[in-house]
Amino acid sequence: MQRIAIFPGSFDPITLGHVEIIQRGTAFFDKVIVGIGTNAHKKYLFTEAQRLEMLRIAFDGMPGVEVKSYGGLTVDFAKEEGARFILRGLRSSADLAYEQPTSLVNRHLASEMETVYLHSFPETQHISSTIVREVIRYNGRLEGLVPSAVAEYIINLG
To answer: Which of 1, 84, 95, 147 has a CA 20 to 30 Å removed from the CA of 130?
Structure first.
């Protein structure tokens, strides 16, 4: 049986921090499905189609990584995909404080689901999609924040 993990997020946009956790996750899982979830309470800078394209660009040719979008609960998406694991990255104790109750609710909804946390490396701990969106809004330099091919895609969106 394949060990499949879901790495959920809004990826508005994908960052090098996301990429690091997903790449490291492929050492533990046969497949990591990067899932763009929809959050009705969030205001996105990029459309879902653009975010999907950025993910495809970031993971093009990377073995063991698939990109999909979904609506509804992450645990339901995980079950549909045959996943038993939800992969999450932690940059700080604030991330853990946010992730822990979410993990407990997911466990309540699907007792077979395990959440696996990987701590970000120091080189990417400071990167968040929120910060990257601010850099984009003010035409700042994206180097070192997002994959270079994604930076090029964003610049070409104009």
So the answer is: 84
